[in-house]
Fold each of these.
Amino acid sequence: MHKTVVYLAGKMSGLTREEMTEWRIEAEDQLNNAGMSVLDPTRTILCTNPSAREIVVNNKFQINHSNIVLAEIAFTGISLGTMSEIVYAGTKGKPVISWGKNEVHKYPWISEHTVKHFITLGEALEYIVENYSIV
C-alpha cells in the first residue's frame, strides 16, 4: 500500500530560510508520525539562478506526484506562487487544505479550489491525518 503524499505549498519569496522551513518541518514531523510522506519545495535543489519556468515545472511535478496539498497562507501579503499552486492542484483534483490568518482563502478562485481552511497548522494537520490517511 502506498503512503499518502502531501505537498507543502507556501510562501517563499521575501522570507528567510527559517521562515520558509519552520512550519514545513513541524508539518513533516507530524505527517511522518501518521505514516504519510511530504514533498517540500524548499528542499528542491535547482541551479543557482533557476528560471521561472524551471521553478514552476518542478512545483507542478511535485504536486502531480502528491495526493493532497497543504497550503500555508499565514504570512502577511499574498503569495502569487502559493495561490497558483492552490488553483493548479484543485484543477488536478487534488484536495487542498489551507491554513493561516490571511483572508485570501475567501477569494472565489481560492475558496473554490480549497476543500477546507483552518486558522492553525495544527488543526489542518489533524484534519489531513483524520481524513486522508491511506490505511
Note: The two ends are 8 Å apart (CA to CA).
Amino acid sequence: MPPRFGGNLRLTRANSRVVRTIKARPVDLLDSDRAAMLPLPPVPPSVGWSNRVRLGRDYYVRVAGNDYSVDPTMIGRMVEINAGLEEVMVTAEGRQWARHQRVWATRSIVTDPAHVQAAARLRATFSQSRPAASEDLLRDLADYDRAFGVDFGGEVA
C-alpha cells in the first residue's frame, strides 16, 4: 500500500493513480523532484510588511485596513511598523511601543488598554492650567532691529 501523507485517504488515492500528463504516479516522482530543488538560502527571506510613518494625534497606525493603537507618548514622532503573519509591532528609538495580534479582517480597531490610560494621563496633564507669561519675557522690538543691523535713521517704525 502507498504511504499515507497527512492521513488523508483522498491524497493517498490521488498519489497512487497514474497521471496521464506525466505518465507516472506523483509518489514515484517525489525523490526526483526533491533532487531537482535548490537548497534553501542561508538567510531566510523577509516576510511581512514594514513602513515608517509619523504617528498622528489619534495614536493609531493603519495596517491592511485595520487600526492598531500605539503608546501616545510617541505622537508626532517617526515610528517603524512591522506587520508579520501573526502580529503587528511598532518600534521607535530602540524600543517597542506597541505589539498586537494581527487581525485579518478589515475595518477593525485594535486598542491596548494601557495606551488609552496613557492618553488620558497626557490629556489631563495638557489641560492643567499653565502659568501666565511673565512680563519680563517681553522684549522691545528695537532690540531685534539692533541685533540684525536694521537702522531706520533713529525713527521708530
Note: The beta strands are 49-54, 60-63, 66-69, 78-83, 87-92, 95-101, 109-110.
Amino acid sequence: MEIPDGPSLAADSAELARDYERISVDRQFRSGKRLVQALAIAPGEKVLDIGCGTGLLAEHIAVIVGAHGRVLGIDPLPLRIGIAQARAGPNLEFRVGSAHDLSAIAPASFDVVCLNAVFHWLPDKAGPLAEFARVLRPGGRIGISSRPRGNRSRLSEAMARVLAQPPFAAHPRPADVVSHVDEWEMRALFEAAGFAVKSIDIYESSRQHASAEAALRFSEASSFGNLLAHLPEALRPAAREAIVRELATLAAPDGALADQGRRMIAVGVRRP
C-alpha cells in the first residue's frame, strides 16, 4: 500500500519499527498525551487513532476510555501494527489501514479522531478530513498534533544542507514527501471539511538526543525510512556518515544534541 503521491511505505523495516517503538516513548508519545488532554477524552468514548504507529498512544487512550469505551488504531505500516498488536485488548484494536480510505468504518461511529505526528505525511489533506468527518458523530471532535509549516529545526536544516551537496544533490528528495500546514491553512481545512474550529495552539517543544547518531536514527525511524529513501541504496551509507558529521558540529561537549521547535495542536468539532 502506498500513500497517494506521498512518502514510500516500502522503506520501513523491522529494525526501524523497533527503533520507533523505543524512541517514540520520549517524543511522539509525549506530544500525543498533550493532544489527548486537549481533546478531553473521557471514559466510555470511542476513539479512532489514525497513524497509530506501534500503539503507545492508543494504549494510553484505552486506559482513559475504560471498559465501556473503544479505541481503534489504524496505520498503513504492517510492521508497526505487528508490534502494536501485542497491546490489543477487549477495548483496543489495531488494523492496517489508510487515512485515505476508511470505507470499512461505519458513519458516525466514533466520538473522537486523533492524529499525532501524522498529518504532515498526508499530501492530500481534504480527502482524509472528509473521511474523518464521515466517521465522527455530530459534535464529535478531531485533534491534530503536528509541526507547523515554516518551522524547520536546526537539526533538520543540517540534514538538508548535507543532502543538498554532491553527490546527494543529484537525487533530490521529492517535494511532496512531507506537507506541513500553518495555523490559517489548518483553519481553512477544518472549515471546508465541516468542522468548527475549537482551538489551535502553537507551543515551543524541545527534544534531546544522546548523540548525532541517535538524532539521525530518530529521523530515520520517525520517517519510516523516508529520510534517505530517495537516494540510491549505494549512496545511503555515505549520506548517513555525512549527516552524522554535520550534526556533530552542533553537539554539546558531551555529544548530546538539543532540538528546539514548535508544535501545533488543532481541535475541531464536527458540525451537525
Note: The two ends are 33 Å apart (CA to CA).
